[in-house]
Amino acid sequence: MNLRDLRYFVTLADTGHFGKAAERCFVSQPTLSAQIKKLENYLGVQLIERQPRRVALTEMGTKILPLARRMLQESDEIVALARNEHDPLSGKLKVALIPTIGPYLLPLLMRKLRRKLPRLKLMLYEYQTQPLLDKLRAGDIELGILALPVPLDGLEARALYREPFTVAVPNNSDLAKKANVKVEDLSGETLLLLEDGHCLRDQALDVCGRIEARESEDYRATSLETLRQMVAAGLGVTLLPELATRGPFGSGQGLTVKQFARPVPARTVGAVWRKSSARTEAINAISAVIETTMKEIKK
Asked: Are 61 and 13 contacting, i.e. CB atoms less than 8 angstroms apart?
């Protein structure tokens, strides 16, 4: 048994398809199939149920999969640790951001990261909160940028900045005439929210939980941009993180973005990584750039 064969097995379990797994592992399909069979022979158990159009794990394969993931993760940590000894701020780093942060933070950040950390190559991904945490624990990514708090079993977290919420209202709404909006002013309004799985949905519900705002049952958006269009069409109001209202994302095209009166509802954005990570120096360096960037923006 070797790490290569375990990687083939894990990839096959993730893709559920021999062809896709072979492509991801940069080998031919017959080679991957033969190595999986070799692993099964060595262990003396069947790991995979080979069906005409799909692959399924056997009961034993399901039990072995998390152990195989852990072994691969720890082997990757060994390699990363050895490389970091020479230059901890170089090489690839897999970073994932949630959809309500990534499109708005990255344009402010990337040029500074390239200037301050020129040898570090970021591989960027976008996931909702729970899939992001799952991939972080599985070793598929090394750093997550998301809204805190989150369950930290096996993970470390660092708060990076506090992001106020704003409220987007139709241009013809009475709320659009106010200098700023109190949370209580949303009472009786139709509240437009993201679909289940987005933490911003839960945060918006938490902010509006003490008032009688009605959640729209007819519309559940998949992105903030969809929410923006729904507000512009006069279907209701929504909460937007402050970064999502800067520059071209601000007022106009049928909607007005209003600031909340104090106390301003907000969310905490932070970095999350595995406690066992060998890339903590690079993670801390990226976190510091984010903190500095957000402080400069607020000046």
From this structure: yes
